[in-house]
Specification:
This protein has 513 residues and is mainly α. The chain has 21 helices and 2 strands. It has helices at residues 13-28, 32-53, 74-89, 92-109, 112-122, 129-139, 145-161, 166-179, 189-202, 217-243, 262-286, 305-308, 310-329, 335-347, 350-368, 371-385, 391-405, 411-428, 433-444, 457-467, 473-501; strands at residues 56-58, 65-67. Strands 1-2 form a two-stranded antiparallel sheet. The chain is globular.
Amino acid sequence: MKHTAAAVAVSDDTRGSFLKWLERVGNKLPNPAILFLIFFMVLALCSYVLQLAGVTAVNLKTNEIIHIRSLISAEGLDWLLTNLIKNYINFPPLGMIIVLTFGLGVASETGLLQTLIHHSMHNIPRKYVTLAVVFISLMSHIASDAAIVIMPPLAAMLFYSMGRHPLVGFACSLAAIYSGFTANILIVTTDVLLSGITTQAIRTIDATMTVTPIDNWYFMSFAVFYLTAVTTFITEKFVEPRMGVYDPAHAQENLTIPDVSPEEKKALRHTLIAAVLYLAVVFLMAFPDNGLLRNSQTHSLLGSPLLRGVIPLLCGFLLTVGLTYGVSIGKIKNADDMIHCMTNAVKGLSGFLVMAFFIAQFIAAFAWTNMSTMIAMKGALFLKDVGMTGLPALICFMLFGQLLGLFTSSGSAVWALLSTVFVPMFMLLGYHPAFIQAAFRAGDGALNTVALVNPFLPLFLEIIRRYKKDSGIGTYLSLMMPYAMAFLVMWYALFIFWYLTGWPVGPGIPQRL
């Protein structure tokens, strides 16, 4: 049965009114940086009021009485002025993200990531196209936001060139990237950012404990294969039949994926050789018992330079393959060209660098005022008193994070806010902070595709209009809603399954402390 644009448009007046209201409210929310500035001012006022009221709490570990310290005081002003720069510089994700971006910048600016995606997708057997698009889209997170810009349009063009509905390709790719945003076999910037924020939140309970970027690796790696299989099934059995046969009359001309040039193929071969050599060197340094990348005391991988140095090693890998490709293709002729690639990549971090400043101040102030500790203690006692200490408490936490995520475009900003309260609270209930981070990640992503507070929404609408000229937000939402609901069920089902099995979420990382 053939469908027209009306088949994917929202026709219900009530639903349309709700979507318009949601869009209007969402557009009025400030930038995350300003949002955290507002949070900081609210925190200052609350700390002042609670100090005046003499509110206290008892540390459940030490039985120490916790008093609130006010930011609106001579002591608070002195702390802020003397620690403002230190709070920013010591913000854990800051240095890690910048270092990783150096490598990503070379790999992206030389065109390696784009060519690799083109080449991979163009050589996929027809019957595995959907599965491959979903899998590659999940793995493309290594390119960060570049994946959102590159993958869905490529998937749409691929489906179009094969005579399939292009919007199905667009939708399944975008769902994998956005609703499956934190799932990856590789260690990507999301792992770095979230683990850094989690480590910062832990300090109110244990100043010596850290969460590394690899601590959710088991859970996230399993999620890749699980989400790939189920998303492929949903796409081919439900979404594509509903969309029907595509009418090419609605498409623009020449919407096909160009072949990778012989020069690019040759450069990819050189890059593959460089990648294998780099990985071989790392392997030889990590897997012999006396390897330089093993723990010098225990000769194991736990606590080894390999795991603690994931970011520098990953940056080195990206620089190796990026430089090899760039030199082979002629885009890097000298050292200045390499530095230019890094510089352009760091320019793209400007928004993050500004946002990180305000997040760092808020997190540091939240800890200094003892507000986070007090909320964690009282919250833990409340959950114990109502008997909500296991899976129900974790699911409520996931739902709360998901609700906040609908109204902000930054998942890391949501985690920066929630982690300061919930990580210490659940630690006091006996859960490992990396497990709480995994719970947040499972609850955060599902509805990303239907959140209207999204800086990429204009891009998505423009891509859809290439294939359906009369499309709008209703078209986009009705296209993505089945995936949003499916991912909502998939993520929660996976987390509940993982919780019940008791499996570790990462190497040496149990669910309970």
